[in-house]
UniProtKB/TrEMBL annotation:
Name the record gives this protein: histidine kinase
Source species taxonomy: Bacteria, Pseudomonadati, Bacteroidota, Flavobacteriia, Flavobacteriales
Signal peptide: 1-33
GO BP of this protein: osmosensory signaling via phosphorelay pathway
Coiled coil: 391-453
Species: Flagellimonas chongwuensis
Length: 697
């Protein structure tokens, strides 16, 4: 979501005119003159003030102009913003001018915030907020609350952001500030959109649009439409996304709102990119990039643009340009500490280097992407819960305060009524009885709701305990043993109990143990993410032959050690519509099991057969087979019994239950056929990829 709308409430129109003029510097000489005049207007007023006999640099009029000039550079020249804001703050502190101190701190906080230095920005915003509360400056208080909420949202602290927005809404309602109410509700919609909670996000956008209709400002309405277009894009509702973004672009072009126009162009590029219409995506990204080159400074939006262009060029198979834009986006992400930007750009760089065959670079970016993604995934899960708890807690606190206030008022009324005639006393009794009935009904409803919540929570805790039991069982049984063995051998070597030559003799066993640990951890991680509802299936056209050949190559050393022959009898280039990573895990687990339970000199055959609109894949081995009872239990979640292969290879018991989950997520089925001592065949189905190509439009 574009942040400029929400960061600036009262100064927006002034900034638009300055940004517009700056962006047009390179278009024509007449426009250059106009741009220069607009941008220099504040400086001209300052110069006129300084030329008067009564000029005093510490005069409040001068300080206000300096503060306005500082904010005018916010999206044009950050260095000028910093130096001028410092000067305004210095003058204000010297004469103890509260409004000037608030403006100076707000400007400096905005500078540090836009640079990614949020640890320096937050104390400045808090100091300005306390001062605004102290002097009763509600407009400044709302502006700072809004800016701080955006700051917390950007760094992923959604709970604190929601709390500030809710407080701001209550404050804006007190003064009936419709414009600020629109902004703060849109902030909350953005928080839910970031959490992929599109239902709640759209509910708040409905509220925003009601405020916008009352305001009657088509530019403000266009800003909301562009943010809603981004939400619809994330929800894969491309029809509504394109409808909203086209309407917003028309308005921004009409009013020459170039900073928002740059964002709208970028969102339209994102919509086409999502649909793999690369040429159209590149066209709109280029339109946005041309505007950013003319001194608009918003690294957060430009990071999205750079990564989008990198993805487009990757889709167009122009890997060199894809690398240029992805690296530029990653550098900007590192500069402003944007975790999401680092994740997106690292993923793109991994894909490009992998395609180029540069495995070292690809592995480096893959590790970075995985580490950052795991961190963000865990953090977002926590923040989703915090978001809900904060909202419920705030509403409960507000409700309690209202009830306490009503109770106090009721007592005051009682004291008054007791001093008047009996008729009024009877009226009070009637009122209290009716009120008690309503409260009782309300309490009964709350009790029922809380009982349901407790029941749901108990079920969740039961599932969590079951998951924890399984997790610790695997760690204790299948990971601690090999790791303990490895630790024991290394301890004996370091203490001189065994020689180097003897240590070398243990290397084949150590390698086998480490391979088992690695395989176990990979399955454990995938299973854990599934249990936390964290794995999102992203189907696409995938080459089944590519996945099978890669896994045969990956497990070739193990199969060769047992003299097992693996035969790939897939038809020519079968294509499936599935999540590449999930099906890769399925094939690897089944093939690994086949090797594990096949004696030396055995045979494993991999085949695929068309069944309507599905591919039926089979992996057949000449191994030990399994009984009917074992066949009925191997896919169960609750099964965590470790079985040993023909050469005493270990497993976690997770593999086949994980395979079942992932095949089902890709709209397939999985089953097994086996005869003891004769062999086993695992079957699973996956949707075919349709052989059709769409033209960009």
């Amino acid at each position: 979501m574009l942040s400029e709308k929400n960061l600036i409430i009262n100064r927006k129109k002034t900034l638009y005119s300055i940004v517009v003029c700056t962006l047009l510097l390179c278009t024509s000489s007449s426009v250059q003159a106009q741009s220069s005049n607009e941008r220099d207007s504040l400086a001209y007023k300052l110069q006129s003030l300084k030329s008067t006999n009564r000029f005093n640099p510490k005069d409040t009029t001068h300080i206000k102009l300096v503060a306005d000039l500082a904010f005018s550079y916010q999206y044009l020249d950050s260095d000028s913003l910093y130096s001028i804001a410092n000067k305004a703050l210095e003058y204000s502190r010297e004469i103890n001018y509260p409004h000037g101190i608030i403006r100076g701190l707000n400007a400096l906080g905005s500078y540090h915030y836009n640079k990614g230095n949020r640890d320096e920005a937050i104390p400045m915003f808090k100091e300005a907020l306390e001062l605004a509360k102290y002097i009763g400056d509600i407009d400044s208080e709302l502006s700072i609350i809004n800016t701080m909420a955006q700051n917390y949202s950007f760094e992923g602290n959604y709970a604190e952001a929601l709390n500030l927005n809710l407080k701001g809404i209550d404050l804006a309602r007190e003064i009936n500030d419709q414009s600020t109410l629109s902004v703060l509700n849109e902030n909350i919609a953005g928080l839910y959109a970031d959490q992929k909670d599109f239902k709640n996000a759209l509910m708040f956008y409905d509220t925003v649009q009601k405020f916008n209709r009352n305001l009657g400002n088509e530019v403000v309405d266009a800003e909301t439409q562009s943010n809603m277009a981004s939400l619809y894009k994330d929800a894969k509702d491309y029809k509504n996304a394109m409808f909203n973004i086209n309407r917003s672009i028309v308005t921004f072009e009409k009013h020459k709102i170039y900073d928002w126009l740059a964002y709208a162009y970028q969102v339209k590029g994102d919509i086409y990119l999502d649909q793999k219409k690369y040429k159209w995506a590149l066209y709109w990204y280029d339109q946005s990039d041309m505007l950013f080159k003319h001194q608009i400074e918003d690294d957060r939006i430009q990071i999205q643009l750079m990564n989008g262009m990198a993805k487009v060029y990757f889709g167009l198979e122009n890997d060199s340009l894809s690398l240029v834009y992805a690296k530029k986006g990653l550098a900007m992400s590192n500069k402003i500490k944007s975790l999401q930007g680092q994740i997106d750009c690292s993923e793109t760089l991994y894909k490009v280097y992998k395609k180029k065959g540069d495995n070292t670079e690809a592995l480096s970016y893959l590790e970075s992407f995985k580490t950052l993604s795991d961190s963000l995934f865990m953090d977002k899960n926590k923040q989703s819960l915090s978001l809900l708890e904060t909202k419920l807690g705030y509403e409960q606190e507000k409700k309690e305060l209202i009830e306490a206030n009503e109770e106090a008022l009721a007592k005051q009324r009682n004291y008054i009524y007791f001093s008047v005639i009996i008729l009024l006393i009877l009226s009070i009794i009637t009122f209290v009885i009716r009120r008690s009935e309503n409260i009782q009904k309300k309490l009964n409803k709350e009790l029922k709701d809380k009982s349901q919540a407790v029941t749901q929570r108990e079920a969740q805790l039961h599932e969590i305990n079951k998951t924890n039991t399984k997790l610790f069982s695997i760690i204790g049984h299948d990971l601690r043993g090999p790791i303990g063995g490895l630790q024991g051998i290394l301890k004996m070597f370091t203490e001189g109990d065994i020689t180097t030559k003897e240590l070398v003799s243990f290397i084949p066993k150590l390698k086998t143990d480490v391979d088992n640990i690695s395989f176990t951890l990979n399955n454990l991680l995938s299973w854990g993410l599934n249990q936390l509802n964290g794995v999102v299936t992203k189907p696409k056209r995938v080459s089944l032959s590519y996945l099978v050949n890669n896994n045969i190559k990956l497990l070739s050393e193990i199969s060769q050690s047992k003299s097992i022959k693996i035969i790939n009898q897939l038809p020519e280039n079968p294509r499936i519509w599935a999540d590449n990573n999930q099906i890769d895990i399925v094939i690897r687990n089944i093939l690994s099991n086949a090797i594990k339970f096949t004696p030396e000199n055995g045979l494993i055959t991999i085949e695929a057969e068309e069944k309507g609109d599905m591919w039926q894949i089979s992996i057949r081995d000449t191994g030990v087979g399994m009984t009917a009872e074992v066949q009925r239990t191997i896919f169960r979640d609750s099964s965590n019994i470790t079985t040993y292969g023909t050469n005493n290879e270990k497993g976690t018991g997770l593999g086949l239950s994980l395979c079942k989950e992932m095949v089902h997520k890709n709209n397939g089925e999985i089953w097994v056929e086996s005869i003891p001592r004769k062999g086993t065949t695992f079957y699973f189905t996956l949707p075919k990829a349709q052989n059709r190509y769409q033209k960009a439009s």
